[in-house]
Structures are given as C-alpha cells and as structure tokens.
Design a protein that fits this description.
19 helices; alpha/beta; four-stranded mixed β-sheet
C-alpha cells in the first residue's frame, strides 16, 4: 500500500501529462517490439578502475553493480542486450545493466508517462533537465540530491566544473553529466557534390548561399535530372547557427544595463530569419521542414537529393558513413569552417542521469547505483572506452556499432571527440576545436527562471510557430512582431526580469 500511495503522489505532480498508450506500447523492456530493446547483461568481469578514488575501499561490494535505466537511442534499432555497446560497458564498469531503450522521437513523451506513473527505473537519462516536468520533479523530491555523496564517489566530481554548474538545480547536483563538446553544430556537406559544382567549403554567408544554389541548379549528382536541393531541415528545428552568422545573440544577450534581451527581439535575428525565408522561397531547403521527422529527412542525403545539413558533426558524420553500408551509396563528406567566423557555444552536455527515489529507496541502494556511475568515469574506464571505440573503428563497416549510442549510454567524456586517426576523425577534431575557440556563450546557462520553468512549452511554441509561419510566408514582419509581443505578454518579459535578477546575484 505504501508503494502504491507513493506512486500516486508522484503522479499528481504530472496530472497535466496525457498518458499516450501508443507510446507505451512502442517501448517495452521485453524487447519483443522492434522499436524498443531491453539491455540486460551478465557482467561478472572486474571493472578496470571501478573503485578508482572511492573511499569505500575493501568494504565496497565486489560483485557487479545492478542498475536499471531508461535511455534513448538514435540509430534505426536499439542496442541489443548482448551487443557490444551494453556488454563492453558492463565489463568496463563491473555492472549488470537493465536498459529500456526508447526511440528518440517519442522519448520525451515516454519520459513524462514514466514519471507520471511513478514506476521508474533506478536511473533516467534526460536530454534537458530544465524542462518543466523535470525541474518540478527535482524540487518535489523525486530524485536524489547527489551533492552529499561526491566526496564518497570522487569520480563524479571529475567533470568540467562549468558543465556541473550548467547542470546544477538550485545550486545542487542532481544530474550525472553526459558530456559533449562545447560546440557540436556545423555545416556538413557532401564533398563529391562540392567537387562536381567546382566549389570549396563556404566561409561566408554568400558562399554558403551560392553553394546551396549550385546544389539545386548545377546537377551535383550528375544524373541529368533537376531533382536536387541545397540543405535539409527537419522537425521545425531551424539550425541556430544560422542566426549566429548574422550576429544574433545566443538565446539571450545582456545589455549595458544588465537587462536580458531575447534573440528574437534583435535585428540580427530578423536578418537570419529573412535569410532562411529566402532559402525556402527559392526551394533551397525542403518545403516540409516543419513536419518531416529526422530519420525521414536524412533519406534525402542517402538518396542523392540534398547536399548539406547543419547537425552535430561528432555524431552525425560517423552516422552517415555508418548508414552507407545499408544504402550502398558511398561518398565523402566534409565540414565547413565557422561561417562568418561565428558559432554558438552549447552547454557542454547532453543532459545526463537522474537517480529516482521511487526505485532507489535507501542510501545503500543509492550507493550501488553510484558505484556504477563512479566506475564509468574513472581514468581506467576512460582508457578502456577509448580502446573500444578504436577497435570498433578498425572493424569492417558492416560490423561496426553506432558510436553515438555508446556516447548516449556512458557518462564520461572519454569518447566525445573522435578517437580515430582517419582523415575524417582528424577533420572533425580540428573543426570542433576551431568552432569552440570562437563560440558565443548563452548568458542564461544555469539560470532557472520560475516563469520559464512554468511556461516553457507555451512560450517556446509561440516563437517556433511564428518562425515557421514567417519562413513559409504566412505572416510578415508585422505578424512576427505581434508574436514576439504575445510571447512577452504571456511571460517572456517576466522571464527576462527573473534572469536579470539571477544573473546579477551570480556575479
């Protein structure tokens, strides 16, 4: 009865979340559904450095740490329980993992449904811990505050301090980071198409535009048919890097008086928006950008329909090469330098792991879960993960696993940068370093506005809908101004005030 009451109390926090039965059926731990997979291993091997720096010493249990987890996958199919991603992680960290894998496109809904039910696994991997439901759950006591345990598990303190700060909630440490490079987004281009139209990697907005125009008009695939376009965009997610090229701030800017000004309020943002509308009007981007899902849009690249995309280069370029084994369409890719010498800095993480109090009820249980995460981020484990990535890279392409799925599982920075020595790996590492050096930070990072937390989806929808309508010509500048005014009235102005107050206090 106590357990049932606890679940109900957690569920009340999320009464606004609709239980979507189709999503529940798409994600199951039995692995019978082709869209989901349960990964539970046998473990048993001693982890390299799993006790590194731990104060538990000889008192620490010698057996594998058993951890259940909810996690996302980005490939076409989920990592298998007996596959190399799960088995190698179990070996390295001395663990037994029971992972419910969920497709990327329904992960947020599945996460909300799981939290509403209260019947959660021990660890939940979240992309963004600052969405309303997660922040409310943290503040309501659904997840363990890990701050008091950092000295006991010192590998959990070895993350970059800025990443830990960016993930803190009310000054406390709830999220075990899933590190990522400071800048990941860049322009990915089919090198063979560039060569075919006689161009080099673009460095300016004009060069970028001319490249897209050539990809549409100059038969870059040499099939004699006018059936190509410049750049793909999907899921109504306009690449933010485009706005950086025009000098717009990274989400917010702080003026000389300490006031927060939203990017959409600046003339530089509007210039970037007009540029995207121009690309749309000239058929240089796909007309269905607002509704097409990611994996469907990417088929245009596999099938010689489009030549460029702005995506996470460390993950996506290897992913495209990985997909070539299925499509049998082989071509070289490249990455442009920062357009106009500008890029946005990200948070340095892809969310991370929250430890649930509904399934991890005691400190003893918590310590077993933290033993796993502590082991994953040990120096010895990092070296092992690098070896795994390098060995994977040496295998025939058809036998390789998608390294991005390993990155999404392990909470360590060991493999966030390419670990190989190929020309592609060297290019990606060089570009990521180049982008990071000139990146523009978001001044609102690690600042939690109560109004933003409460009204995040509503505020976000107002702006993303208006942006899409503007690009497609359904509203003009006056219409976009009206949407910004509505955003400010609904809560945007209050968010700006709260962020300014928090920013001043943090200085």
């Amino acid at each position: 009865m106590k357990k049932q009451k606890m679940y109900k109390s957690w569920g009340l926090l999320f009464s606004s979340v609709l239980a979507v039965s189709a999503i529940l059926s798409a994600c199951q731990t039995s692995g019978t559904n082709p869209g989901a997979s349960s990964a539970s291993g046998t473990g048993g091997n001693a982890a390299a450095g799993s006790n590194s720096g731990s104060k538990q010493g000889a008192a620490e249990p010698a057996g594998p740490a058993t951890v259940s987890m909810l996690n996302v996958y980005l490939s076409n199919t989920a990592p298998k329980a007996d596959g190399p991603i799960v088995k190698e992680t179990e070996r390295i960290a001395n663990a037994k993992l029971n992972i419910t894998y969920v497709p990327f496109n329904v992960y947020s809904e599945k996460l909300n449904v799981t939290m509403t039910s209260g019947d959660m696994p021990q660890a939940i991997m979240v992309e963004n811990p600052f969405v309303t439901s997660i922040v409310n759950g943290i503040r309501a006591g659904m997840f363990w505050d890990l701050t008091p345990y950092l000295n006991e598990f010192p590998n959990l303190k070895k993350y970059d301090p800025q990443i830990m700060k960016n993930l803190s909630v009310d000054g406390k440490y709830y999220v075990i980071p899933r590190p990522r490079p400071l800048v990941r987004l860049a322009t990915i281009i089919r090198k063979d198409w560039l060569d075919n139209v006689g161009l080099s990697e673009p460095k300016t907005v004009d060069e970028f535009y001319n490249m897209l125009k050539a990809f549409k008009e100059k038969d870059p695939d040499k099939n004699g048919v006018n059936d190509t376009y410049g750049m793909m965009i999907y899921e109504n997610s306009i690449p933010t890097e485009i706005f950086a090229w025009f000098g717009a701030p990274n989400n917010w800017k702080v003026d000389d008086s300490g006031n927060f000004v939203k990017d959409v309020e600046t003339k530089e943002y509007r210039e970037g928006l007009r540029f995207v509308r121009k690309l749309y009007n000239e058929d240089l981007i796909n007309k269905n950008f607002a509704i097409v899902v990611r994996n469907e849009a990417r088929k245009d690249l596999y099938n010689n329909k489009v030549g460029a995309s702005i995506e996470a280069i460390d993950a996506v370029v290897p992913f495209y090469y990985f997909q070539m084994q299925d499509t049998k369409n082989f071509y070289k890719m490249t990455v442009s330098p920062p357009i106009n010498g500008k890029a946005y800095a990200a948070s340095g993480h892809y969310g991370g792991a929250l430890i649930s109090k509904t399934s991890v009820k005691t400190e003893k249980d918590l310590r077993q879960v933290l033993r796993y995460f502590n082991a994953v981020n040990s120096d010895e484990a990092k070296a092992e993960f690098v070896k795994v990535a390098q060995e994977n890279d040496k295998k025939p392409a058809a036998e390789q696993f998608n390294l991005d799925d390993l990155k999404n599982l392990v909470t360590t920075d060991a493999i966030v940068y390419p670990t190989g020595t190929t020309d592609t790996d060297t290019l990606l590492k060089s570009r990521m370093t180049e982008y990071a050096a000139i990146s523009i930070p978001d001044p609102s990072s690690a600042l939690i506005s109560p109004t933003q937390t409460e009204k995040n989806e509503q505020l976000k929808t107002i702006l993303t809908d208006a942006r899409a309508q503007y690009i497609m010509g359904k509203i003009d500048d006056a219409g976009f101004d009206a949407a910004v005014a509505q955003w400010k009235k609904v809560g945007g102005d209050q968010v700006a005030k709260e962020l300014a107050d928090l920013y001043k206090k943090s200085k």
